[in-house]
From TrEMBL, chains A, B:
InterPro entries: HTH_MarR-typ, MarR/SlyA-like, Tscrpt_reg_MarR-type_CS, WH-like_DNA-bd_sf, WH_DNA-bd_sf
Keyword Transcription regulation part of the UniProt annotation: yes
PANTHER family, per database record: MARR-FAMILY TRANSCRIPTIONAL REGULATOR, TRANSCRIPTIONAL REGULATOR, MARR FAMILY
Highest taxon, organism lineage: Bacteria
Species whose genome carries this gene: Plantactinospora endophytica
Entry keyword set: DNA-binding, Transcription, Transcription regulation
Keyword Transcription: yes
Listed Pfam families: MarR
Record's signal peptide: none
Domain HTH marR-type: 10-138
Protein name per Swiss-Prot or TrEMBL: MarR family transcriptional regulator
Length: 155, 155
DNA sequence: CCACACCGTGAGTCATGCTCACTAGTTTGT
DNA sequence: ACAAACTAGTGAGCATGACTCACGGTGTGG
């Protein structure tokens, strides 16, 4: 029955989520990072130095929370606060040397991880996997942030 | 280049992890549950009433943590503590009526979720997705709990 | 009977995230 | 040009969740 296959696939996905999550958390902890802090770092990586308010918007958390995250990242030397060139109220969060190196190392590590994960997987299977994941992602994106009444069960 | 495809696929997986995680957390919160508490519930569902020490082993957390989780689940009426029939030191954690109903509803919701996620996906793509995920899961399982020096980067 | 096992509590840590109130700067509207 | 209105960041305080170690009571079993 087709339903069983779907359940099966969903189970796989749920297990994947757990495993990746754990692995991520563990690996970040080794670097003295946490998930939220890393999200911030990635935002910075994508957009360059930015004021905290923009980070708050991008990460969808309150300004106060960003202050806390930046505090932590600053304390461990990944980012530093710089004066905003034109708005003296604002603070520009920028990478330190170390922060930049760390993020680059993470990108590199990610590449290695991808290679490890998909090693010896034939190209067509990889394509098909990508296509399938793409479909699923579209559906998931559709029911994520805005709506509130629509969805129902997940795990 | 093949590496790019892999990075791509990994990015998809990472996004999937985030989306599913958020969705799960939100949906569980609606039921008055958290992820850890739900893990415990699932363990109970799989193995039936069990003493806390077994839960601790199954969930790989300390006994103290289990006490806390069970406290929470008991307070919200999902489980209850029963005396162990033969070992009077031990406590059997069992579902309440409500807990059982909730877990069954979650299973049902999961089925619906799977249908939603894979709706209109041709069978062969589903198969291929499953196969690909299976491969990845095997690799991930391999580097999860025991080893400590081996892996490297993830997100 | 005594070492060990099962639970529970106390106390404390860390991460995340919220609100409220406040300061210091910036804009806007006359 | 200047006050009113708003914005950026943060101090203080609170809650929740997950987890730990250390300690103690009670029961088991050799």
């Amino acid at each position: 029955m087709i339903g069983d296959r779907r359940i099966n696939a969903l189970d796989q996905i749920l297990e994947l989520v757990v495993l990746i999550n754990d692995d991520m958390t563990r690996s970040l902890a080794r670097d003295g990072l946490t998930v939220s802090r890393t999200h911030l770092l990635w935002e910075l990586r994508r957009h360059g130095p930015m004021p905290q308010r923009d980070l708050a918007a991008a990460l969808r958390v309150s300004a106060r929370t960003v202050t806390g995250l930046v505090d932590g990242l600053e304390a461990t030397g990944f980012v530093s606060r710089q004066p905003h060139p034109t708005d003296r109220r604002a603070t520009l969060v920028t990478f330190t040397e170390r922060g930049l190196r760390t993020v680059e190392a993470m990108e590199h590590g990610q590449r290695e991880f991808a290679d490890l994960l998909f090693a010896q997987m034939p190209a067509e299977r990889l394509d098909c996997l990508t296509a399938g994941l793409g479909e699923i992602l579209n559906r998931l994106r559709g029911l994520d942030p805005a709506r509130q009444q629509p969805s129902e069960g997940d795990r």
